[in-house]
Amino acid sequence: MSDEDVAGRQRFASLDGQTMAHGSLVEPERLELAAATAGSTPLIARGSGVCFVGASFGDGVRSIGARRLDRVLDFAPERGLITVEAGITLAQLYQYTVPRQFYLPALPGHPQISVGGCIGANVHGKNPAQHGTFVEHVESLELFHPDHGFLRLSREQNEDLFELTAGGLGLTGIIVSATLRLRPLPSPWIEVRRQPVASLGATLRAMDAAHGNADFSYSWNDLSVFDHRLGRGYVATGSFVPGTAASLRDPLRYPHHDPSAAPPGRRIFQPVLVPWIARLHHRAELLRPRRIVEWYDFVFPGMGFQNANYYGWYGRSGMIAHMALIPRPAAESYLAALEAVLRQQRVPLLVASMKLFSGKQRLLRFDGDGVSLHIHIANDEPGRRLAAALEGLSREAHAPRAVYVDSRLTAADAATLFPQIDEFRERLRKFDPRRRFASELSRRLEL
User: Fold this and answer.
1) What pLDDT is recorded for position 150?
2) What is the pLDDT of residues 312-345, one digit of tens each?
3) Which of 176, 259, 266, 380 is spaced 20 to 30 A from 141 at the CA atom?
4) Residue 3 has what pLDDT?
5) Mean pLDDT, to the nearest integer, of 5-16?
6) Could you tell me if residue 415 is inside a domain?
7) What is the number of structural domains in the chain?
8) Cα–Cα distance between 352 and 348 in angstroms, integer?
9) Residue 428, SS3?
């Protein structure tokens, strides 16, 4: 995930192309961690490096890569528990658990993400209203800190540090391994239904109606046209259906993303083309409102589309990702204000999705009761103006933005949107007074 720049240094870039830095990279085995983290150089853990923001690197920071920590350590099917090293990817986890008829519900949409990265960001999957976020499925974990050694963390053991680490952006130390709670896999096949919706408000109502009647639910909305069709799209629901064994995907089939080596942007998705692409997608999906797909293809949709070229093409330096979690009481007014901003700014968007959430917001976690809106915006002057306007809507609605997605989130906005950010800092200083871990993200947020 990095390329050589000058002797002893590496050039790193975030997936969205907005954050770059020069540091070093070592990829130790477990027994080599003490030597790899010796000295006074700031440290940070690094999984697969496909985070939107600079969470796993920094100027003058030594990134501790986990790609050699990718083994399954234990599997207890009678208890539904699996223990894996933190560098194992979601695709590798899938390849191990599905033949054994188990799955992990809260999976984000990219098979290359590591389990350690999922814990450090506390990501979510296709139905956070039912499945919660990733931390809900973590039984325990092992953390290494150069000043504390190896520590076992769970809700019963070192509970405070467990809470600080899950969603702690790698700032408490290096996650070495984790024990995850799996669920029995009813079938390797998912029946996907797409219900057409005419607006953002109609999307919210349709998702409310579908809640509890499907295993997974999310929307796609067309924000590329600014007449009566604005916000049209579909709500996709997925339910397990009986079927024979699915064909296992080979994780090596999909090229490893390398944001650092990606081209600087080709502007294939010109603004004039985006509405046509969105229209074609909308029509194609609704031509087949019901289909049965393999579990892999549902949880990791469109891997041919969500690749490094996509992020490079949509703007000269990648894309601006904006994901806000709107509190439920403010959802209707927020969506009305959003439509007004979109019609005023008239910046066509290709990717926009909504999901229902149910949980409690703690520390820096992207969680709570509400509805999330995730969009990608071209990184040009009109796009940046639109992003600024959406950030204003987020502040007005007290809607937290995803720390691990939003490369424009400032320390001032984080202080407003995350009431417990000072508590996070204080607890981190108490555990690690030397503040051994740092990244471009932590520096931007003044953590």
Assistant:
1) 97
2) 665 556 788 999 999 999 999 999 999 999 999 9
3) 259
4) 44
5) 72
6) no
7) 2
8) 11
9) helix
Bridge partners (DSSP) listed for residue 221: 233
Is residue 179 in a domain?
Answer: yes
- Whether 260 and 403 map to the same domain: the answer is yes
Predicted confidence (pLDDT) at residue 82 exceeds the cutoff of 50: yes
User: In angstroms, what CA-CA distances link 341 with 337, 346, 347, 362, 374?
Assistant: 6, 8, 10, 30, 16
Q: Are residues 286 and 372 in the same domain?
A: yes
Four-CA torsion 398, 411, 13, 128, nearest 10 degrees: -30
What's the pLDDT tens digit per position in 263-273?
A: 555 555 677 88
If one counts every other C-beta atom within 10 angstroms of the C-beta of residue 217, the result is 25
Same domain for 366 and 250, yes or no, is yes
Q: How many C-beta atoms lie closer than 10 Å to residue 65's C-beta?
A: 21
How far is 431 from 422, CA to CA, in rounded Å? 14
Do 151 and 200 belong to one domain? Answer: no
Q: Please, what is the average pLDDT of the chain?
A: 89
Q: Is residue 391 part of a domain?
A: yes
Write the CATH number for 390. Answer: 3.30.70.2520
Residue 318 amino acid letter: G
The domain of 303 spans: 189-407
Residue 242: pLDDT band (50, 70, 90) is confident
Beta strands in 69-170 (DSSP E): 72-76, 81-85, 102-103, 138-145, 149-154
Task: Kindly tell me the burial class for residue 445, based on how many C-beta atoms sit within 10 Å of its own C-beta (0-12, 13-18, 19 or more).
Answer: buried
Task: Reduce the DSSP state of residue 23 to 3 states and report it.
Answer: strand
Last residue of a domain, one of 168, 185, 202: 185
| H/E stretch holding 414 | helix 411-417
The region, left, alpha or beta by phi > 0 then psi within -120 to 50, assigned to residue 22 is: beta
Q: Looking at residue 343, what DSSP letter applies?
A: H
Do residues 290 and 403 share a domain? yes
pLDDT tens-digit profile of 354-413? 999 998 999 999 999 999 999 999 888 999 999 999 999 999 999 999 999 999 999 999
Helix ranges (H only) for 314-380 are: 331-345
Strands 20-26 and 189-197 come out as unpaired
176: left (phi over 0), alpha (psi -120 to 50) or beta: alpha
The β-bridge partners of 375 are 322, 352
Helix, coil or strand: residue 420: coil
Q: How many CB atoms lie within 10 A of CB 398?
A: 13
Q: What is the DSSP letter of 357?
A: E
Provide the β-strand partners of residue 219: 235
Q: What is the CATH number of the domain that holds 114?
A: 3.30.465.10
Quick one: DSSP state of residue 268? -
- According to DSSP, the residues that pair with 184 across neighbouring strands are 102
Instruction: Determine the pLDDT at residue 311.
Output: 62
